């Protein structure tokens, strides 16, 4: 899989990265390797990862009980995903502050860091 990376002047030292299957994403320089590893891991998944099919679960806000339930459902779906470790590695390297990545919520990732 090839990952397209382009520097953009308005991204504050971050890079735009994307593939044909995934949208462009602003990736911190320190996490480019992890992003490429994640793209390689998801490229072999038939139908793509579950997070691409129901993104609202992975981006739910934990401020409501529905949001907490959605995050728990997303984390459970991550448990069987073969790209889970690469996803979590990327989120930690990029300091992703929102969403469920690699089966961990933002609060769980902050505790792990």
What is the fold's blueprint, element by element?
Elements: E1 4-7, E2 14-18, E3 25-28, H1 32-43, H2 50-53, H3 55-58, H4 65-78, H5 84-94, H6 106-112
Antiparallel strand pairs: 1-2, 2-3
Helix pairs in contact: 1-5
Could you walk me through the main structural features you see in this protein, from its secondary elements to its overall organization?
With 113 residues, the protein is of the alpha+beta class. Helices cover 46% and strands 12% of the residues. It is built from six helices and three strands. The chain has helices spanning 32-43, 50-53, 55-58, 65-78, 84-94, 106-112; strands at residues 4-7, 14-18, 25-28. Strands 1-2-3 form a three-stranded antiparallel beta sheet, with no helix packed on it. Strand 2 and strand 3 (25-28) form a beta hairpin. Helix 1 (32-43) runs antiparallel to helix 5. It is globular, with a radius of gyration of 14 Å. The N and C termini lie far apart (29 Å). The model is unreliable at 1-19 (pLDDT under 50).
Mean pLDDT: 80
What series of H and E elements makes up the topology? EEEHHHHHH
Point out poorly predicted stretches.
1-19
Shape: globular
What Rg is obtained from the alpha carbons, in whole angstroms? 14 Å
Distance between the termini: 29 Å
Number of helices: 6
Structural class based on helices, strands and sheet pairing: alpha+beta
């Amino acid at each position: 899989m090839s990952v397209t990376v382009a520097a953009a002047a308005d991204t504050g030292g971050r890079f735009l990265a994307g593939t044909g299957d995934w949208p462009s994403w602003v990736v911190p320089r320190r996490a480019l390797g992890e992003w490429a590893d994640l793209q390689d891991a998801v490229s072999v998944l038939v139908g793509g990862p579950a997070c691409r099919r129901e993104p609202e679960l992975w981006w739910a806000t934990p401020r409501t009980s529905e949001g907490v339930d959605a995050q728990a459902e997303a984390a459970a779906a991550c448990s069987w995903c073969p790209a889970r470790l690469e996803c979590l590695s990327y989120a930690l390297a990029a300091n992703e502050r929102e969403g469920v990545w690699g089966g961990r919520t933002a609060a769980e990732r902050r505790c792990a860091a």
